[in-house]
Amino acid sequence: MLKGKTALVTGSTSGIGLGIAKALARQGANIVLNGFGDVDGPRAEVLAAGEAAGAQVAYHGADMSRVPHRDMMKYSASQFGRVDILVNNAGIQHVANVENFPVERWDSIIAINLTSALHTSRLALPAMKSANWGRIINVASVHGLVGSAQKSAYVAAKHGIVGLTKVTALENATTGVTCNAICPGWGLTPLVQKQVDAKAAEHGISNEEAKKLLLGEKEPSMQFTTPEELGELAVFFCSPAANNVRGVAWNMDGGWAQ
């Protein structure tokens, strides 16, 4: 379905971003990965996922907190042509009460989780509009719809992502460019696993018990949303069936945000 298209997925060397990159590759899209840590492993996974569809994979190591976005966009275009599908997924987390929240951590979270999506979007939109086809998918969170204690910066950033999604969709409503947000609940990503580990240590319980405790606090389905499920939702947003899906904040959260 996406043969000949190029997808740039930020924060895609693990977790949700990697799941989305693999799902798009399976549909034939060429993928530009971005993120920290191991690159060879994720690249091999995406290549394997897209092998039957002929997808190719490149990587750019832009630090999403430092506004190197123009270089990353130029690199993506030089590898495969314009960016047809932009997935803004990069994100970090820090937990503390508002009065104790470290200012530098607030600034980093807003820069990576929110501001980077503005920069990549503004750079991708001209070519998308010229081609009259494009998909911007912002990975928000259920925390773009509801709040949780001790997550002020994350919740603020994710609410901002939902707002940015709506405005981007409205500004391009008469074009072939759409913008939508995905709002996952708990997914067992490296970010969430740290919270599971902390809960297990705090209560002196096993990791499996800590997972159940975490899910029981918020997610009625008592199951984690998987990167594979989120990847398939991203594929839907890129399909002809979603041509008129514009500006939605689609929660996949097991009933959390009711």
UniProtKB/TrEMBL annotation:
GO BP terms: namely: monocarboxylic acid metabolic process
- Name the InterPro entries on file: 3-OHbutyrate_DH (IPR011294), KR_dom (IPR057326), NAD(P)-bd_dom_sf (IPR036291), Sc_DH/Rdtase_CS (IPR020904), SDR (IPR050259), SDR_fam (IPR002347)
Query: In what residue span(s) does the Ketoreductase domain sit?
Result: 5-176
Q: Which residues form a coiled coil?
A: none
Question: Could you identify this protein by its name?
Answer: D(-)-3-hydroxybutyrate dehydrogenase
* Cited Gene3D superfamilies: NAD(P)-binding Rossmann-like Domain
Similarity comment: family membership: Belongs to the short-chain dehydrogenases/reductases (SDR) family.
Recorded hits in NCBIfam families, A to Z, give: PHB_DH, PRK12429.1
Gene from which this protein is expressed: bdh
Molecular function terms from GO: 3-hydroxybutyrate dehydrogenase activity
> Which superkingdom?
Bacteria
What organism does the UniProt record list as the source?
Answer: Acidovorax sp. SA1
